[in-house]
Design goal:
Elements lengths: L11 H22 L8 H39 L1 E14 L5 E10 L6 E8 L9 E6 L6 E3 L6
Antiparallel strand pairs: 1-2, 1-4, 2-3, 4-5
Length: 154
């Protein structure tokens, strides 16, 4: 699993989308209240603006809360993660972009204090991963979160 993007690493279209969703409702509601729409449509436009505002706030809270939770969990993995070895049970070349290829691997991970479990990962680039080889991974102590170890010396 890849590290989630940080607050200022989000794609621009994510920020624009959140801006439109959060600001669209109040703009429509103000347009209805300020009289920019015909009188017979005013109630419907105001109600639509209020509903969009409520939905925009919910989306914003979910986006901020989800990003904060993901960053906290990955920070826990950085600080309290356990180094373990995963044994590759299958490996195959798979496309992972327009012109790139990766190796999709499934492995059995045995971490101290946890029952053995299987996980899947993509290894980018032309690196060949043999079935049966041992791959170092970092395991979250309490969650089902595993990442390939970037620094094999830890």
């Amino acid at each position: 699993m890849n590290r989630p993007t940080g607050w200022f690493e989000q794609p621009v279209w994510t920020a624009v989308g959140l801006l439109v969703v959060v600001c669209g409702g109040p703009v429509v509601a103000v347009a209805g209240v300020a009289g920019f729409v015909p009188d017979e449509d005013r109630v419907g436009v105001v109600v639509t603006g209020l509903v969009w505002t409520l939905l925009g706030v919910v989306v914003l809270v979910l986006a901020v809360g989800g990003t904060a939770r993901d960053l906290r969990v990955w920070r826990e993995l950085d600080t309290a993660g356990v180094r373990a070895m995963g044994v590759v049970t299958s490996a195959e070349r798979v496309p992972c972009g327009e012109d790139e290829r990766c190796t999709g691997i499934r492995m059995l991970v045995k971490a101290p204090g946890r029952p053995p479990f299987t996980t899947s990962h993509l290894v980018p680039g032309e690196e060949v991963v043999e079935v049966g080889s041992a791959v170092p991974v970092d395991v979250h102590p309490t969650r089902a979160l595993v990442r390939l170890a970037a620094d094999r010396s830890r």
